[in-house]
Amino acid sequence: MDSVSDYYSATQLRADRWSALRESVISLCREGNSRKVAALKKKIEELFDSLALIEPYWAFPGMAAFDHMRRQFEYGHFDDLSFTTNRVKRALTTGAYRRRTIPLDRDSSDDEEHNDEAMLSPEARAMARPYFEVLIVDNVNDQQDRWLKSNVSRMRRPEDPFHYEAVVVPSLEDALIAVLFNHNIQAIVVRPGLVLKSKNDNEILAKYIHNASHTDSIDTMMPEDYGPELCRLIARVRPELDAYLVTERSVEDIAGLDLGICRRVFYNQEDFMELHLNILRGVAARNKTPFFTALVEYSKQPTGVFHAMPISRGKSITRSHWIQDMGAFYGPNIFLAETSATSGGLDSLLEPHGPIKEAQELASRAFGSKQTFFATNGTSTCNKIVVQAVVRPGDIVLVDRDCHKSHHYGMVLAGAEVVYLDSYPLNEYSMYGAVPLREIKHQLLALKAAGKLDRVRMLLLTNCTFDGLVYNVERVMEECLAIKPDLVFLWDEAWFAFARFSPTYRQRTGMRTANNLRKRLRTEEHQRDYELQQLELEGASDETMLNTRLIAPPDARIRVYATQSTHKTLTSLRQGSMIHVNDQDFKGEVEQSFHEAYMTHTSTSPNYQIIASLDVGRRQVELEGFEFVQRQIEAAMSMRKAISSHPMLQKYFRVLTAGDMIPEHHRQSGVSSYFDNDQGWTDMWDCWEQDDFVLDATRVTLAVGGTGWDGDTFKTQILMDKYGIQINKTSRNTVLFMTNIGTTRSSVAYLIEVLVEIANELDELLDDASKMERLSFDRRVKNLTENYPPLPDFSRFHDAFRPDDVTPEGDMRTAYYLSYNEANCDYLELEGSLQEALDADQEVVSAGFIIPYPPGFPILVPGQVVSKEILAFMRALDVSEIHGYRADLGLRVFTPEALESVQSPKKLKPAAE
């Protein structure tokens, strides 16, 4: 039997243990009295022992049924055990236990085939009452356990909108394990009889306890404090849940306590009906989808359409003789719900007062923001809205140079003066990493020394990057606030919306960090630490400041914005995005300008289907986001393990690790890989808590240079054209596989099969290759794995677009609009006139954005000086898609006369003037 250490998570362990138990019991029934019986019995005993540590945290099949199955085995009733294990495994796989009672005895009249969940229609599944589990924490004996569960069962009523079962555990530690392990749990009832320690001893379960509690203080607590502390601890790991505290303490004692996720306190009473109603009400609050519900109701109304949109109610389709196929493909509901009306129970996205407003408020609660705004034309628009709302013409903005192109265009629209920040390069893989904190602090200190700190408005960073690099958000924000206490932060979390629903990932999100800092900066301990550091840093040099972990002043303003592509990582129709705001000065300073920017960029005819999908997507993650994100991470981890440990795949492929993508001095935990063939899994928690940068495990970057194919060829001609596998991101010698909340274990298995087939075909090809063919293959591999062009840093803005030569900020807006006059521009060929101009030490200045795919961000922006390094990189690019570059003409640049014509009263004046 596989070791527990072979599994990244207990969820996979449980599923595979039940599968192994079913198969072993079936084999035992077939073997009769053969010599294999003893070995099978031993394996079944081990599986029962392993499952005995896990099953107490789940309502189905329940410990009573599990113990009955053990007795069937001990008494030799193997046929009965085979029937029972098959029923349990089938119910767990299909989720049938969520919708009906699953009889586990052979005398049951239940027709398993008739009730097979896989045969249910989507409509039938949608009509079923949603199922969840309630965790009751109390140290009770078996009789009291049955009494608790029976009282919970008696409260059920036919009109209840949901159905739930109870799980009873005795201790605080068991409760922490349960909420991190059992994704069905939606509510916790904490009773006064709970104890502290768990009796279970298992390495995976021990890891869960460590990651959930993460404090030694619970060991010194008094028993009466266990309940309130449990509510606080669960709030850290699964804040979306509801807790109900039953206590014997007085009202005065409880009133002043921080009770975390506790919705209500019951004082030493056994009012099960009141508790039942509160549990249902709490889940209903998360299940609510105000706009989706309003749109469904609207679609049922008989209406006459005498305004825009012939497609509304599907009339232009049903009356057509030529586009009936469209109606057949999409079905009637999407057209019944298609309208431009803002009345009749609906709402306006531009001025929401009804269900859209309520839906945005629910999203704000779910994602931990103070305000949340929906967008129906993608995060590109969200980015421009935030920049235009916050940044004024002439403000200085520090921008991650390899961020999404929408930010660069946003800087032009806002009239910002941009300081580009260089990420550390990963030349070997032709990709960039992320911006080191030292680089950000260096630029802030330089601007401070130049007397420009008052003009510094915003820091804009991508978290996480396309390749999966995630910042230590709290450290970046705190140290930057120590230099500029009112700095605004825009975290582009386009690929990181799912992170809110993982305890490990959540700590590196903009909204969670903003809430944490707002609380911490108000504490007396933080005040003391800040004052002590100020004494130590009095008169300190910039070098000392760069080498010190700075503490933000207690009066620093927390001003954080996060933009998320909901459609990229959560359930939403394409272009569904959200803007999350946690800005202490939003109401007084930004709200009006935000409204204007929102009006500027938002369509007056937003797609209601997208808005409804955002509403439903929020409901999903509040109720099952923890489960889905956990499975997403598990899928990526299993992919890592399968590729890294397969001898054939190792010949041609390599999964890039954190050690490959993050320099050692940015990995304070020392973790270099999430999986190692010799040591097994590494717990991610420590590195996600400590390191400057971490690698998002859901992104698996595969080095494919060993195949002789570049990344783009491998993506299009091999994966897509031959095997139907779709991916998005490539580099010169890598391809990126991203798991998401819809990824299944079967999808991962298919990918592994494909990669093995590719490797086998390469083996056969090379085995039959001639000497010259082998030489050609080796040359291509060497070119992709050893001969790589160095990635260029941002050069500089031309002096015509800089206010002085002291600090590097540049005015892209002037350069951008200067290029509108064709007389100001010329074209230079990469292989001819451009190279000659640089060889002659002439300053060549880009007149537009040059964006190759990959890497997908501007390598040149308007007003930027073209360096020899940038030219070398452009000549080495072997991609077919380069936005802004015309192969027939060359690179568009400014003429010397145009640069001379740019008049700036600040041009090249010393900062002191």
UniProtKB/TrEMBL annotation:
- Give TM segment ranges: none
Instruction: List the InterPro entries.
Output: LL-DAP_aminotransferase, Orn/Lys/Arg_deCO2ase_major_dom, PyrdxlP-dep_Trfase, PyrdxlP-dep_Trfase_major
Q: Which key words tag this protein in UniProt?
A: Aminotransferase, Transferase
Q: Name its co-factor(s).
A: pyridoxal 5'-phosphate
- Report which superkingdom the organism of origin falls in: Bacteria
The segment(s) forming the Orn/Lys/Arg decarboxylases family 1 pyridoxal-P attachment site domain are 289-515, 559-745
Q: What is this protein called in UniProt?
A: Decarboxylase
Organism, as annotated: Sulfitobacter pacificus
Q: State the organism's lineage.
A: Bacteria, Pseudomonadati, Pseudomonadota, Alphaproteobacteria, Rhodobacterales
